[in-house]
Fold each of these.
Amino acid sequence: MKFFLIKLLALMLFSFSALHASAPATTEALSAHQEETYKTKPFSEMVGGFLKSTGINALMNPDPNEKNSFGEDMSDFHKSWGRVLMILLTFFLFWLAIRKGFEPLLLLPIAFGGLLANIPVAGIAGEHGFLGVIYGMGLSNEMFPIIIFMGVGAMTDFGPLLSNPKTALLGGAAQFGIFGTLVGAVALSQLGFVDFTLQQASAISIIGGADGPTSIFIATKLAPELLGAIAVASYSYMAMVPIIQPPIMKALTTDAERRIKMTTLRHVSRLEKLVFPVMVLTLAILVLPESTPLIGAFMFGNFLKESGVVERLNDTLQNSLINTVTIFLGLGVGSKLAADQFLVPDTMFIMALGIIAFSVGTAAGVLMAKLMNMFPGHKVNPLIGSAGVSAVPMAARVSNKVGMEYDSTNMLLMHAMGPNVAGVIGSAVAAGVLISLFQ
Amino acid sequence: METNLVLEGFKFMGLGMATVLLFLVVMILCMNIMSYIVHKFFPEPQPNLDPAVSTQKDNKKIIAAITAAISHHRQG
């Protein structure tokens, strides 16, 4: 019965196509078009042609005419085994995100974008592929990081910073990671290991700010060709904050320092919280207009939140908008994980410099706290210094966790939020400085 | 030309760190001044009354929740 049905169906299809073929073409143009695009071929040739279009074939026998998303030639390695390697790497990133819980919100979209970008033939990350379109829509013009900043602003509470303003210095000190690495990167170029320009070195060093959107913002402005590696380094190190930071924090502090209890935070009035964003933005306007795209967006989100009268907008910024943009941002960054752009020696150096930047930033924050304790006034627990790198709120949580290891009654979380949000401002200012230097 | 690059890096570092720290120091000063002004001229209306009412309410809520939990436990 089943066979009969199939036969019938095949017969119908065949007769239909035969009819169609024998029917005289309505217009000459159409028939010419058909002749151009379709010629009857024996079945074996069809199968052969199909096999040539498979992914396996594309990976085994790279197409010599294939171009990358910049329209440049690619090496055979990047068309074949490089892609396989990158696809395996994205599987590893899936594992990190799902099993280890490393920033899954961003790592998963990035990794999947990377998987899609490495598919041969389909050209998803190319100019007309959907990843390419997403990239052009919001990454190459720095739109997505800015929107993310608005959402982060709406999620940020400046209360802890306002009640203990001097902790902002810790957020400033941690930016030393950025500039220290900048020197490191140019020194590497000097020694001839790599060939980083000052722009590229600056874009790499901003990883030390531990701020994903800022890194992407700077990378697209100063060194778009390094975006994939920088974004991946930045987000993966942010995700590894709980692993990277504690050893550095412990190495630089004494047992007594880690047990320092900080005075309770005072109450911050609503008006203070409302004035603060406008005040910081005014300062940024006066001192460093180059940093205002980032700080302006950040403070816009925060102002909406603290105004208390636009709950709907605030809710959209904090949830639906930032989530939507995170998906696009992740996929867009993932598109830069194409083998020809990621599997280059530079990437290795970027990853290495990134972790140095991050560690130096952490150390500088802790040391700054120790320095502040030399002056009279309320003592600062140096463990909150590490939160000066801006990875909000992960770095603050790490400070809290390490503090609790030594004294389970010592709650440092809110104290660490102060330097943490100051770190966001600090890295935005640092970004503004770098941009202004290349104007 | 070659030696310039590292020197440039140090220049960037000096300028960058100075700007960041200066910005934050000015920000801290402004924050202190702003807090002073706000507390002096625009104090929050009756800060003592509100928490007392809310804690009373909270206490009642907590008592209600505990009572409910106990009765649920006894029933179950």
Amino acid sequence: MVIENVTCPACGLLCDDLTIETATDSAKDKLSVVKNGCHKSVVFFSRSASPTSPRVDGKPATMAQAITRSGEILRQAQMPLLGALATEVQGMRAVMSLADKAGATVDHMNSNNFMRNVQVVQNSGWQTTTLTEVRNRVDLLLVIGTDIVSTFPRFFERQIWNGETMFGQDTSKREIVYLGGDPDTTAGVAPDGRKPDVLPCAIVQLPEVIAVLRALVLGKRVVAHEVAGIAVADLEKLAARLKAARYSVVTWAAATLDFEHAELTVQNIVELVKTLNSTTRSSGLPLGGMDGEMNANQVATWTSGYPMRSSYARSWPEHDAYHLSTDVLLQSGETDALLWVSTFNPDAPPPVTQTPTIAIGHPQMKLQREPEVFIPVSVPGIDHQGIAFRMDNVVSLPLYQLRESTLPRLGEVLGEIEKTLKTN
Amino acid sequence: MLIKLTGGRVYDPAHGIDGKVMDIYARDGRIVAKPKDTERIDQEYQLAGKVVMAGAIDMHTHIGGGKVNIARMMLPEDHRGDPVGHSELCRAGCGHAAPSTLTTGYRYAEMGYTAGFEPAVLPMNARQAHLEMGDVPIIDKGGYAMLGSDDMLLRMLAAKKDQNAINDYVAWTLHASQAMGIKVVNPGGISAFKFNQRMLDLDENNSYYQVTPREVLKTLARAVYELGVPHPLHIHGNNLGVPGNVETTLNTMLGAEGYPIHLTHIQFHSYGTEGDRKFSSGAARIAEAINQRKNVSADVGQILFGQTVTASGDNMAQFRNHAAGSPKKWVVMDIECDAGCGVVPFKYKDKNFVNALQWAIGLEIFLLVEDPWRIFLTTDHPNGAPFTSYPHLIRLLMDKTFRKEAFSRISPDAQAMSTLGSIEREYTLYEIAIMTRAGAAKLVGLHDRGHLGAGAAADITVYTDDADREKMFTKPDHVFKDGQLVVKDGSVVKVTWGATHVVKPEFDRGIEKDIAKYFDAYHTVRMEHVKVTDQHIADDGRGHVQVHECKGRREKTT
């Protein structure tokens, strides 16, 4: 059977125009992408998720036994952590309900990346846009520290080199500038062969480069002639182009800004955007939304008031971007039970730790250590329906069920575990 | 289950009942006429001396959707001041300016409210609005879908499409967004901001479409009317917060050309330019216009002093005003060629001339508009103040001594610019019941809420009469939601999940072909995926969709 307009949760773009062919008799759970695929969606949809059995202490167990054991671990813990949290909206609702009941902390597997953005929103805010605006309005795209496409394969196809726009723009004239890193810029080549501009520098030197660019946009005089190997004159030209553009979009991926206090660089990027808006229009576009991170943040925020890295240890939710990180909690030994949720793919197992671990997720999860409890669940967007938020934090899309699975959904499992707990 | 509420003093303006001592019966969630003497009463509540009203309805409160969640994410410091621990019954969360969804529901119910309507549901973000409202317990919910800066409508207007086609598109949007009404925010202006326009007056063209806000307003007001949608077009006008915008607002009333319109948070749109500081009250002129024009209703959007956060679809105004915010952080977004949003924290201060005068202007409008069926009690939560300040606001309206005392404490320069100190009117309980119950239900189009007649949902609030109206309205004795006792002595005793109210007017489905083609060409999502299904709303046992009647297509006006 062929199913059209399927949503793909393999990256934060959440393309919803895929055509998927389902199951032949010989390969019951086999799916293949027949239209509008990319290297990520092909892997996502063609992966097998044959059911496996729950395990307790490495031995096959019934679901009831696995749930009972999970409840015991959580009841005995003083400071349980619900980590990874790669799931869709309904699964995340169940996570938050369980966290409240268990007095647990919640954190996502990608928090080290996206907290760089969250901290900026909490500290000074930003001015941003969404994918359809980009598709129809952008005239100058400034790409900072990423090639975009290795993580978001169809970005240029759908947002930049799209044929038609609402406002009659000739998209082939769009200007692309890559700043920082040593990106593969192939995707930024215009349909007529025009190459993008590239200002390469080491990623770790982006803080100084962005600071200078912001200063130039603000009209400050910069004495240096060069920063991180980039001529200041080139940055001056870039600043002038940003000011002259009618709707520039400045984009970055928090994941690739992998250096200490990258949030300050994100802040400089978005403050630069704010300044541009005093005379023209410009918008930031934070690239992210991998592994359900938007779902985790959105649901946690409306449920508790806080995004990731919040805790119910004291009955009411508290939030701390540093002390409630998975790394800190595990390394300090403060956390005495880890419940790890990773439903989309088998590639994100729990970290190897002495902490008693309950791993819930993809049936083929590539475990590096046998956890105390393993519970396989069905895959959202393949085995069951769901809802997911796109990288721009605005658009949510329905995920499809494309085949039958005998495995339960995450929410069902967490709901059963929650029943074994009492409110503190 | 048959319950009897015995001997309370009942205020039920929908039936002209003004403080009459009477019994009320409810069976299985609905109010019923007095049953036969032979029928067994399962539960009786002795309410002698108590005040009984229908559950209150907040017809404009930002409780769900992207911008509210951005406000939450931005304000950890505000949440820390109002932590809410879990109990046997209720889950944890946080309160104050941008409360968590769960706390929102509990606190509304604990204040005697049984319904709240999110006024800015962006069609492209409607699913999120419903998901958040789905996590608001106890109370009923609903929303108004935002149109007027979306490319599709502006494109249709630019192409001079006929009104029927526009009506079909408006109806399609109501279905797709699962909405109770249509709202327009800074008509055409959110779009204009994306083309780098910074102001857009009523007769000024959007530079790209060459369409004026007046055309947008009139076309949408007419569409809503002709589709038979009970709630009139919900208008957040142009020039929010701009001194002199009273003229825009008065012209907006004229621009409706007699179609029913609702002007929301009108306080923010009632400013003159008199006085040394070129900022003055336009309340008297606004009130006079509302008094004369029966097609116009308004809610006030009262500001109250203290920290809050403003969350609006009006990114043009929010960008313009961000420098006045406190603390200094703000988010402005362009959204999907559909709409926008802006979130700016504000701290209103009684010694600040502008804030103090805003406060006085809001109260002047409340007190000068004569017909309580056409003026509604809101703070535009959380933009003017959090909804939890309603009891205080009610006391300001009902107690002139209290009000005058408060007035004497605000900025003296603002006092000099306001007539508030000389206004003697005090709202009665009957008038409060109109504003917050019967009138609100009628305005929104909820035929079975906001009153206590047979057939209505048994959403009932019981108060202890107290001269201190703030105290009285803060902590009701009993709140019944669909016949179930959910609040006792001001605390939640049972958690239920309310309905989501929507309208689904008839329309020519042929338009879907055009919309689908349009989405395929220009958008980044498929048209089908914009639609919020009943299942998205009802999943996880969080309530259900209740469809309200549209009286069919009304006669075309030309």
